[in-house]
Amino acid sequence: MNRGFYIIMAAQFFSALADNALLITAIATLREIQAPSQYEPLLKLFFTISYVVLAAFVGAFADSMPKGRVMFISNSIKVLGCVLMIAGLHPLYAYALVGLGAAAYSPAKYGIVTEYLPHSKLVVANSWIEGLTVAAIILGTVMGGWLISPMVHNAFRIADDFLFQGESGSLLNYSMASIAGLYGVAALINLWVPNTGVDHRPTHKNPWYLIRDFAHCVRLLWQDKLGQITLAVTTLFWGAGATLQFIMLRWAESALGLRLDEATYMQAIFAVGVAIGAVLAGKLVPISRSVEVVGVGIVMGLGAILMVFIDTRIPAIALMLVMGALAGFFVVPMNALLQHRGHILMGAGHSIAVQNFNENLSILVMLALYALLVWANLSISTVIILFGLFVAITMFTVRRWHQRNMREHRDELERLLAIAASLHHAPPSAQALTVAADLKEVLPPPAEVIAQVRRIAAKPVRRRRRRKR
After folding, report:
1. Do 319 and 303 touch, CB atoms closer than 8 A?
2. pTM as predicted
3. Which of 7, 79, 168, 334 falls between 20 and 30 A from 307, CA-CA?
């Protein structure tokens, strides 16, 4: 990998780091202004709504100019959202502006790697992206808790007394300014992102055409007998994951007696478990058997109910690690299979847009339902039980859906899974045979090569005459 690739990765890491730290700080800001408790899940809802509303247009925007410039504009919008929150704009509206920047950033960050690198390096590049994303989630969540911790706020108080005689306002403004600084660093790095030389003239500018084309792609993936199952699973997973993020914080505070900054470590432990599960899935689950891991999602839903019976830290840590591992183990193979089917049906760019739309729509719906439960003043134990049962029942329903497809369309599904297996997980011996067969078609027989060498060697060598000076 050359220097340009590492510049791209550095920009994405700082932006993702700030994204994950900002949510915790925004929750703390809501609590400081004594906003109703149901506003906390609405933060993520306001953040996500741009992904859904603008799903048909952000891809065209990303393709209208160099990707580095798109990412610079997007991170600048995120900085503006943080500044407005510091200036006193309601956290929900300021966080929605940050979500607008994130929605515009998403297709550019995925597209730049495809434009910049040859296909032979895309697997390695994607492993870097996944590793940095997990690291950003873990470190960003921990950083969010650290920025609102009493120890850090004591340091902010000393700085505030020195600079403004303690009259500058909330100490959380310093936390928000630190996150805005991370977005600023990401935006500055974007200025050095190399230009890939791709022609950035959008093929269509008519918004109605973009909407119709996007709707066609959504319908195409949902009608595919294999794509519909993988899309249903990942859609449910990301909606449940966003909801679990808030459930986990409330549970850690009420059942374990942790402060908000300490409760964030439970989210980090869950993310570590996801990374472990993802690694195990990559080693143990071939893409042709990805659909079989839906049962793990049922176990994860039932396992979430165990949170009700835990009130000490060590068992809580173990449960979060196991649940994270289960989540990573079943969602990573499904996501790989979904990307494969999307690429076959409509191309990678449209597939990512459709996937983002469905997953973020699920986040909107599930967070809205969770906000209603909080507004109804249900106990956290009741919410956890309802959440676990919902996940288990929906995953069971999807599993039965796939079993029905296998009964009614077995030949088609087996053919599609065989194609996925041949393209993504051919065994080394089969690959070697394929390479050998290809070389046999191109190269001449060894006897012919030896005869040609003998003929060349038998020719007399002519000596070149030296020119007289």
Report:
1. yes
2. 0.75
3. 334
- Rounded to whole angstroms, the Cα distance separating 198 from 209 reads 23
Tens digits of per-residue pLDDT, 438-451? 444 444 555 565 56
Task: Provide the greatest CA pair distance for the chain.
Answer: 106
Domain annotation covers residue 469: no
For 360, the token pair is 């973020």
- In this structure, what token pair is assigned to residue 162? 């020195």
Query: Among 176, 203, 230, which residue terminates a domain?
Result: 203
Conformation bin of residue 312: beta by default, left when phi > 0, alpha when psi is -120 to 50: beta
pLDDT tens readout for residues 94-136: 999 999 998 888 777 766 766 676 655 655 666 577 667 778 8
52-83 pLDDT, tens digit per residue, is 888 777 777 777 778 888 889 999 999 999 99
Q: What is the 3-state secondary structure (H, E, C) of 246-306?
A: HHHHHHHHHCCCCCHHHHHHHHHHHHHHHHHHHHHHHHHCCHHHHHHHHHHHHHHHHHHHH
φ, ψ for residue 68, nearest 5 deg: -60, -40
Query: Are residues 384 and 247 part of one domain?
Result: yes
Same-domain check for residues 317 and 355 = yes
Say if residues 239 and 292 touch (Cβ distance below 8 Å). Answer: no
Per the structure, the count of domains in the chain is: 2
DSSP run (H or E) holding 3: helix 3-32
Rounded-to-integer distance, Cα 404 and Cα 398, Å? 10
Q: What are the backbone dihedrals phi and psi of residue 120, each rounded to the nearest 5 degrees, phi first?
A: -65, -20
> Which structural domain range is residue 34 located in?
1-203
**Do the domain assignments include residue 462?**
no
